[in-house]
Specification:
Helices cover 74% and strands 2% of the residues. By secondary structure, the protein is an all-alpha fold. It has a two-stranded antiparallel sheet. The radius of gyration is 20 Å and the shape is globular.
Length: 298
Amino acid sequence: MTIVPPVNEVRERSAAVPPLLMIVSGVSLYTGAALAVGLFDVFPPTVVAWMRMAGAAVILLVLFRPKLSVFTGRVGLIAAFYGLATAAMNMTFYEAIARIPLGTAVAVEFLGPIVVAAVVSRTWRQIAAVVLAGAGVVLIADVQLTANPVRLAFVLAAAALWAGYILMGAKVAGAASPKDSMTVGFAYAALLTSPVLLLTDGSPAAGASDWGWLLLTVLGLGFLSAVVPYGLDQVILQKAGADYFAILLALLPLTAALIGFVGLGQVMEGKELFGMAAIVIAVVLRTPMRRGGSARHA
């Protein structure tokens, strides 16, 4: 006999899916970041960011093999802009964390999603969620702003591009075949940004003694830091929309803090615990509410 769960229980599970997917995305993203750290000793940060996109493009092209028609027309143009926004966001962020503390970069870059969420906020719940999410990220991150304009320029550019990534990602999520559009976008991004390889001074293997190791690392970086998290982003955007998605992104630094605590024994201070609580409350405030037996956004 098949037991059908109550409607309210199904809706509760559905509402819990986007936050859970964002946490899974964060775990994959920061695992891939561990691979990127090793490559920073061999290649410039921008080149490592390109490797991330190129590795992801190769994996996605092999998996999905999109039709040539997806590469052209309006669909191809939107995919190309999405891919370029993603690649530029990664490159500017990698350049930022090569110059300023990671916590500072994460907190400042989060201005992008906060602006997106703030623009579409209408109710007190939405506004409170934006404020709490931003405050939570700042509390978790060790913010040490510097007066160096070049350093701030990179991270502010990453913030603006993150906002662009959310908006373009929402368009890709609404495409007839999001996975094909994402594949095409990454392929365009890897191709159009390939001139950054010139930054290696003509010796892309300098310091890398094993080409097999390098290839596996690039593919692993592309899979863990791009294919999984950006693929899950598309699922979350379809389920939650761009505004709720922007708030859910606050779960990424929370996930990183938890990984540091559980895996590395990094003890969290009081302000970090308050920051985690603020983010959780923000996500709860923006979770779709049930009224009169139907699900609605707050």
